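Supplementary notes for students who missed Thursday's class. We covered one full example, reproduced here. Read the sequence, then the structure, then the short commentary at the end.
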Amino acid sequence: MALLAGVAQFAYLAYRINRTGSRDQATKADVVVVLGAQVDASGQAGPDLQSRTLHGVALVQAGFARHLICTGGYRGDRLSAAAVACRLAVAQGVPATNVLLAEDSMTTWEDARATALLMRQQGWRSAILVSHPLHLERARLLFEGEGIAVHPSPTSTNLAGIPWRHRAWLTAREAVGILWIGLSELGVPYEWTDGFSRWVYGLPSLVGAD
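Structure (token representation):
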């Protein structure tokens, strides 16, 4: 019974992940938040970061919000995801004064905390959250956990266009990530799962770092 319950729970999470990624829920909000992604060795936005940033810019230019927050990377690093996305957004016509950086974050959870702090400083409460479609359900949970009213807006709602093996892997990975959020809500310190989450998401561990 426990095994069946576990399989059912995992299947439900997979459904939620794909459902959130297949619907664009963008609406008027205080700000558009672009979640960070890989930066090429050349210092240019990787394909995922580029699509996220351009989607965020399009939302701003369509009047959904005036401001854009770019997340990810070490503060002051010109090659951080936030800094690279910011430059791309400005190059696409968003006024530099309307683009803010939420840095010092290397995971989605850290993105959520950094963004929430910045939004509180600005008196903002609602955000259109932009990311890869299969990342948005987990991101939504983490950002809502920081008290933000979230409106997910995937870079594409055409999930059928994702090769099925890659879609299955991403769905499973995100489902595991959501289960880890549940553990933290039960009182397990998020830092205890740092090594696992960074292994799953391909990030260097910060355990023992200065």
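Commentary. The beta strands are 31-34, 67-71, 99-102, 126-131, 149-154. Residues 203-210 have pLDDT under 50 and may be disordered. If anything here is unclear, bring it to office hours.
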